[in-house]
Design brief:
Three copies of one chain form a homotrimer. Chain A starts with a strand and ends with a strand. A five-stranded antiparallel beta sheet of chain A has the order 1-8-3-5-6, covered by helices on one side. Chain A is elongated, with a radius of gyration of 15 Å. Chain A has a single domain, classed as Jelly Rolls, CATH 2.60.120.460. By secondary structure, the first copy, chain A, is α+β, with helices and mostly antiparallel strands. Chains in contact: A-B, A-C, B-C.
Chain lengths: 132, 132, 132
């Protein structure tokens, strides 16, 4: 079953923590051992894993991505969001995480984030849980 | 079953749209619900998802990656393609996409691209479809 | 079954080749056709695929990532490793590789690397093999 989480974002660039919601999908699935797939069906947003403990990490990452790929760089695409397409491609749109004992196996400091680069918008994170 | 798509590229840097061909592999598999895995067995090419509507997006992405990692930067590797290795690693070599109703679930604007960074060459995109 | 490989690293930035160890996990699993999932449960390390033939490629990649995201850039996070979080997110934390004939299907030049960006430390690479 493919579960669609709706994730509203509030700023142009934002990492929105969805760890708890993904864990709930895994718990509801009743799968004990398997794989949890995450997929973001957008071209200016992606999915990433990063530290969930200190908010400064998320801040530094967004800030530095803006330095690497500035919004106002010279682009051809007329919508003014080419930087967002590039950032999303660098971060990626899919991930596969292991499930053990009925829960996602994440590292101590890991959180799962929707990576918004052209918000604010309502976004979707697709979650699929497969036993195996 | 692992299907190998042959993808000839025409330029040194190129995003080649393979969406239709991957959709055909999914359709032929007869799998209704499952996961489609993409894998690129090269070190100077990868696989990425990006906007398929406006070609300017692809142009901007390739151009900007060339600015971020210039071909002529000072590298040790003697073949003159270190930039291509780095770009491919940033974009990534594998992806997992959900299948629903016998078709890939892609966002409205999403296309699947072989990301060539050291062409022109014949390249391979591996596609695996698993029910689940 | 989820296998945890312990990978000690020796430098702050390092690509440690784990290809042989992952191939052994695949061989021991007895799975003939399927998918091998790799997952790194850290926020300052990731997993990547790159050329295993010429060590200069790995050297160039680490060097250039240091130029793109310098350790001493101005960051908020007080631990002094924000660059490592960003590099790990760019490289990614998970990958899915096809298995055929009881072995990983890798390209001729491909190797699998734990990508360390804040070592030296003992690190973990999780490997999961699923038939299908």
């Amino acid at each position: 079953m493919l579960v669609r989480l709706t994730v509203p974002t509030k700023r142009r660039s934002q990492l929105e923590d969805v760890t708890e919601r993904v864990q709930q999908v895994v718990a509801s699935s009743g799968v004990d051992e398997g794989v949890c797939y995450l997929f973001v069906p957008h071209t200016t947003a992606g999915v990433t894993i990063n530290e969930a403990a200190d908010p400064a990490v998320v801040h530094d990452m967004l800030n530095y991505l803006d330095e690497l790929v500035p919004t106002e760089a010279s682009f051809l695409h007329a919508e003014g969001n080419s930087d967002a397409h590039i950032k999303a491609a660098l971060v990626g749109h899919s991930a596969a995480l292991p499930i053990e004992g009925g829960a996602l196996v994440l590292g101590t400091w890991q959180g799962i984030y929707l990576a918004e680069f052209d918000g604010p918008r309502p976004r979707t994170v697709m979650v699929k849980v497969v036993a195996g």
